[in-house]
Write a structure and sequence with these properties.
36% of the residues lie in helices and 7% in strands. The chain is built from 6 helices and 2 strands. Strands 1-2 form a two-stranded antiparallel ribbon. It is globular.
Length: 143
């Protein structure tokens, strides 16, 4: 498929047997309702599974998702591929702008969740997590 939305729509239309998406995304609630239920496949939480994931992308991790009304298709604790949402800024963006942006994001989790449910797992204390490849903008470091 050309993108995940198209793949979800094709799954809903019966053109695909499987796919991937973000657990808890509104699109998954839509698909779940349309097809009479979806099921997420659990990844074994083993050192071997983690090593295989990290061989593809060093920053992947195994995350256990628990049943919650917003997690369509999760009926028991399920291990999924974890990927952090990263907000990027170009090197041409001033340090001041990035510092103000990060300062606005950090204390406002509740407002971010209202805008998009994937921010439910946002943990401000982990905003400075070091990634294998990504480098922080000087404005973010200043914050």
């Amino acid at each position: 498929m050309t993108n995940i939305i198209r793949a979800a729509d094709d799954f809903k239309a019966g053109k695909l047997d499987g796919g991937f998406f973000a657990v808890g995304a509104p699109k998954m609630a839509e698909v779940n309702s349309a097809v009479g239920g979806i099921r997420w496949l659990s990844i074994p939480n083993t050192p071997e599974s983690l090593a295989n994931m990290r061989a593809v992308r060093p920053d992947y991790y195994i995350q256990t998702v628990r049943p919650n009304p917003v997690n369509a298709g999760i009926s028991e604790p399920t291990n999924v591929l974890g990927v952090d949402l990263v907000i990027m800024a170009g090197t041409h963006v001033s340090n001041e702008v990035v510092e103000k942006f990060v300062a606005a994001i950090h204390p406002n989790k509740a407002e971010l969740v209202k805008g998009h449910p994937l921010f439910r797992s946002f943990q401000p204390k982990l905003m400075a997590k070091q990634y294998a490849v990504a480098k922080y903008h000087p404005g973010a470091i200043a914050f």
